[in-house]
UniProtKB/TrEMBL annotation:
<feature type="domain" description="Glycine zipper 2TM">
    <location>
        <begin position="65"/>
        <end position="105"/>
    </location>
</feature>
<keyword id="KW-0732">Signal</keyword>
<feature type="signal peptide">
    <location>
        <begin position="1"/>
        <end position="29"/>
    </location>
</feature>
<protein>
    <submittedName>
        <fullName>Glycine zipper 2TM domain-containing protein</fullName>
    </submittedName>
</protein>
<dbReference type="InterPro" id="IPR008816">
    <property type="entry name" value="Gly_zipper_2TM_dom"/>
</dbReference>
<dbReference type="Pfam" id="PF05433">
    <property type="entry name" value="Rick_17kDa_Anti"/>
</dbReference>
<keyword id="KW-0472">Membrane</keyword>
<dbReference type="InterPro" id="IPR051407">
    <property type="entry name" value="Bact_OM_lipoprot/Surf_antigen"/>
</dbReference>
Length: 155
């Protein structure tokens, strides 16, 4: 019995560490400042808005749902069967619980009601950049803009 509990504890710690590596480390997921090109050139520039696309919500998750789901699934799976069947049920419960927990957390993030705007900009030097913002205020296609710290501002 003690070796089974040790295996389960080891499995839970390993799955938590593995799933924790999938977590987002972004402190502000709503202004990612993602651009085509290197981040060092994204600090400032001038251009014209080529297009604006709207995306609903943000499906990024922290990984908490996966970890909690994996732990609960492992505990439930451990109650089934005995011997190697119990170990298999524990592993299956942990994997299934992690997948379900991550899905639930992702659905909540996607349904948060926040629209994101991908603003595609043709720069004065001929490059194209794409900036993600949580609002566009008065920006329209064809406007001259200035990019400062990954955000587009009307110029």
């Amino acid at each position: 019995m003690k070796s089974t509990n040790t295996k389960i504890a080891t499995l839970m710690i390993a799955s938590a560490a593995l799933l924790g590596g999938c977590a987002s480390t972004s402190s502000n997921p709503y202004n990612t400042g993602s651009v085509y090109g290197s981040p060092s050139t994204a600090a400032m520039g001038y251009g014209t808005i080529d297009s604006i696309q709207v995306t609903r919500g943000s499906a990024s998750t922290s990984g908490t749902g996966a970890v909690v789901g994996g732990l609960v699934g492992a505990l439930v799976g451990n109650q089934v069967g005995s011997g190697s069947g119990r170990t298999a049920a524990t592993v299956a419960g942990a994997v299934g619980g992690a997948a379900l927990g991550n899905k639930v957390e992702g659905d909540r993030a996607a349904n948060s009601g926040r629209d994101m705007y991908q603003i595609n900009i043709r720069m004065d030097n001929g490059e194209y950049r794409s900036v993600m913002q949580d609002s566009v205020y008065d920006l329209r296609v064809g406007n001259r803009v200035r990019i400062v710290d990954g955000r587009a501002y009307r110029y």
